[in-house]
Amino acid sequence: MPWQSNGGGDRPNPWGDGSRSGGSGGRGPGGRGPGGDPQFDEFIRKSQEQLRKALPGGQNGIWLVLLLVLVIWLGSGIYRVEPNEQGVVLQFGRWTESAAPGLHWHLPYPIETAIVRPVTDEITTEIGSRSRASRGGRQTVEARDESLMLTGDENIVDIKFNIVWRISDLGNFLFNLREPDSTVKSVGESVMRELVGKDRITPVITTARGQIEQDAETSIQSILDEYESGIDIVRVQINQSEAPAEVKDAFLDVQRAEADQQRFKNEADAYRRRVLPEARGNAQRLIQQAEAYRAETVARAEGEAARFISVYNEYQAAKDVTRQRIYLETMEQILSGMDKIILDGQAGGGVVPYLPLNELQKRSQGGE
Q1: Which among 153, 151, 134, 131 is positioned nearest to 142, based on CA atoms?
Q2: What is the Cα–Cα distance from 348 to 363, expressed in whole angstroms?
Q3: For the chain, how many structural domains are there in total?
Q4: Residues 102, 165: one domain?
Q5: CATH number for the domain that contains residue 131
Q6: Are 238 and 204 in contact, with CB atoms under 8 Å apart?
Q7: Are 270 and 233 part of one and the same domain?
């Protein structure tokens, strides 16, 4: 109903009368009421007249304005979610649904509201140090209470690392975590202390850093999934892993000694790998030579025994012939390397006994 000026008539005062005001003197909002300020009533009356002039249709014009306001109000519930974003719809502050990329509509405010946030941006949580902006650029501030950790061999190691993560489910992220960055930091520090406490300081500082990063990423993601945090761990990156500054020099001496020990061990292993095969080869060669000598000696002995037995059998069959053959073979062996002159008994009867026939034979051979 359009507002009508009270104008001293008998219409009820919409701001209440003075008897109902507890010390405000019958004033309306702001300490002024229509009955207390005639100028205000005049302002209301002129505003009504201007509104009637702007709406020539009278009551129908008012309904048209109300319809236009309703359309605008309903249209305020249209919202867009970009491909790199996610959205959630709240009904009187309660999460009712999630919105994928695209064009959506929800009941306008104050019934429902929509929250849209990017979910592909990577967020970095630093543990063990903090990067701060300064006049000269970025400045790193250490957090020793986070970075100092106890290893499995009861040494202290100084580890500074980052956890890079992004939002995977906006609804869980907003309503299941009160402080996401603090939660990620607490979980990451706890997991890293557990992994470092299972290993010795030397691998933690040198060779095991990559494996620790992978194990930490898996464990942190598993814990956050149990929390239904809506967070996806991208990577865990160890920026620094070394002995504390107070004992760094002593630890470097220990590392050098361990490196020398490993070098000597490698040299000994190399010498062993070189000498042992050579010794085994020589031993095998000697064994084969001994076996060959044994086989040769046994075969020769067996051959001579067989020959003796065959000669003996022939001797038993014809003793005179065998004896003569043995005699001839023996003389052949004896005389084979000697100078020999054979004289026929009949032709050599006139030879001077002292004539050096062998010297004459050598001279005749040399003259030829």
Answers
A1: 131
A2: 20
A3: 4
A4: no
A5: 3.30.479.30
A6: no
A7: no
255 in any annotated domain:
no
**Could you tell me which of 134, 197, 184, 192 has the C-alpha nearest to residue 161?**
192
Q: What are the tokens at 97?
A: 């649904």
261-271 burial, b at 16+ Cβ within 10 Å, e below that, comes to eeeeeeeeeee
Mean pLDDT of 264-290: 92
Domain that holds residue 35: 18-58
Question: Tokens 């300081």 label which residue?
Answer: 201
Report yes or no on 68 lying in a domain: no
Asked whether 99 and 86 are in contact (CB, 8 A), the reply is yes
Whether residue 332 is contained in a domain is answered as no
Q: What is the mean pLDDT of residues 159-164?
A: 93
**8-12, 30-34, 174-178, 351-355 — most confident range:** 174-178
The tens digit of pLDDT for each residue in 51-91 reads 566 555 555 667 777 778 788 887 777 878 888 888 888 88
Q: Is residue 335 assigned to a domain?
A: no
What pLDDT does residue 337 have?
73
Q: Is the pLDDT of residue 25 over 70?
A: no
Q: What is the distance between the alpha carbons of residues 195 and 203, in angstroms, rounded to a whole number? A: 12
Burial group, residue 173, by CB count within 10 angstroms (0-12, 13-18, 19+): buried
Q: How many residues does the chain have?
A: 368
Question: pTM of the prediction?
Answer: 0.53
